[in-house]
Amino acid sequence: MKLSIVKIGGNLIEKETALEQVLENFSKIEGPKILVHGGGKMATQMAEKLGVETKMVDGRRITDQETLNIITMVYGGLVNKTIVAKLQAKNCNALGLSGADLNSIKSVKRPVKTHDFGFVGDITNVNTNMFSLLLNNTITPVCCAISHDGDGQLFNTNADTIASEIAIALANEFEAELYYCFEKKGVLRSIEDEDSVITDINTEIYQALIKENIIADGMLPKLHNCFHALEKNVHKVYIGSVDMLGNEKEIRTTITL
Amino acid sequence: MKLSIVKIGGNLIEKETALEQVLENFSKIEGPKILVHGGGKMATQMAEKLGVETKMVDGRRITDQETLNIITMVYGGLVNKTIVAKLQAKNCNALGLSGADLNSIKSVKRPVKTHDFGFVGDITNVNTNMFSLLLNNTITPVCCAISHDGDGQLFNTNADTIASEIAIALANEFEAELYYCFEKKGVLRSIEDEDSVITDINTEIYQALIKENIIADGMLPKLHNCFHALEKNVHKVYIGSVDMLGNEKEIRTTITL
User: Fold this and answer.
1) What is d(CA A126, CA A143) in angstroms, rounded to the nearest whole number?
2) A230, B62, B152, B227: most buried, per Cβ within 10 A?
C-alpha cells in the first residue's frame, strides 16, 4: 500500500494562507499519510520576543536549554496543535507527535566534534509498530521536529531527516513516497528564475549540479536525505511546491538513484 | 476493568521535584490510566515575559488570541512534552493529546453572559472510541487543558472538567476512578492546618461545609466536578496529594454521593 510522507517547510507554516493551502491539499491525499513539520522561523521570532539569543553555526541552530524550551513550545505546541486542529476540520484524523509521544522517534545527542550543538539529537530509531498501529486505524500522524533519548531528554531534530527516517523505517511495510514541500516549484537551476525547475535529478546529475555550484547551502543536506532514502528502499522522492500534493501532473523535481 | 484518571494541579507541574514524584507514582499505577494537566501558572509567567496582560474575571482567565497562543505553547508544548518524555523514561507509553488530537475532546465557545471569556470552550463530546483504542493498546493518554470545536479553533478548557468529562465518558466501559491531585493532602477543614483533612465528603456533608464557609473559592467548582462525575457513574472520586497515587492507605478525601 502507498504511504505518503510529506514534510512542509517553515515558509509554508508561517503564512496563514500558505498553510491553509498545504493542509487542504495534504488532507485530500488518499491512503495513509504522515505530515512532518519544523517551525524554525517562528522559533527564532519567539526567541527574539523572549530576549533569547539565537546562535547559529554553519546554518544550524545551537540548542541550549532556553532554546529547547522555545522549540518545544513552538514546534510541539503552537505549530503542531494549530495544524492538527485545522486538519481535523478537514476530516483528517490528525494526531500530533513529538518523538517522545509513543516513543515514536528516539535519538542520541549529537556528538561534540568541532562544535557542541547542545540539545540536538541524531535519530537512532523510528517506532514502526506505533506508526503502523496509527496508520492502520486511519490516524494521520503530524510529527514535529523533536525527538527524545528515552531517558527523559527532548532533542531538537532536523525535520527533513525526521521525514526521511520515517519513510525509510516504513519502507518495508508500505510503498513509501516522500514529498519535500517548500515555497519553490522544485530544485531551481537559477535561484532568480522560479521557472528553472530541474524536473529530474539522479546521482549523476546531482554530482554535475554540485560541480556547477547549482546545488549549495540548504539544498545539499536536503538532497543528501533524498538519496539516502532512495538507497534505503523509499519508493519515490519529490521536491516541490504545495501544488504537487495530490497532483502528479504538477511540475516538481523527481529524485531517482 | 479499573481505569485511573489522574488530574495534576499547577503547583505540582511547576516544581521539578514535585513533578518527578507525581510522574513516578503515576507511572506505577497498574492497569489503564490517563493523566490530565493544565499549567496555568507557567502560562501566566510566560505571558508576563512576553508582555501579554493576564485578564482574570472571578478567578477565571479571559483567553484572547495572544493568550490562547501562549496556552497552546505552554500546555500543549512545553508542559505536555516534558511530561511525556519523563513518563517514557519510566516505561510508561505516554501520548500527549490536546482535544484536537484524534478529535479527542470537542467543545463550543462558552456563551457570552455577563462576560466574554474569549477562546474558552465548554466540552460537548469526549471521543470514547479513540480513548478506548489507545487504552486497549496500553497507551497512556496525557491530556492538556485544550479542546477544539472541530472547525479548526482551539479552546482553553478547565483541566478539572476535562478530567471529570473523560471519566464520565469512559464510565460505561471501565470502572473509572478519578483522582484530583494537588499540593494538599485533601480538602482541609482549616486552610492553615495541613493535617485537617476531611477524609469523607458526601452530598450532605458538602452542603454543611458550604454553609460553614469551609468550602469556597477554587474548591467549589472542583467539588462540583466530583459530584457531577459520581452522578454520571464514575466509580470513585478522590482529592489528595501525590502520595495517594498507588497507595490506598494514604490520607485523602474520598467523595461519595
Assistant:
1) 12
2) A230
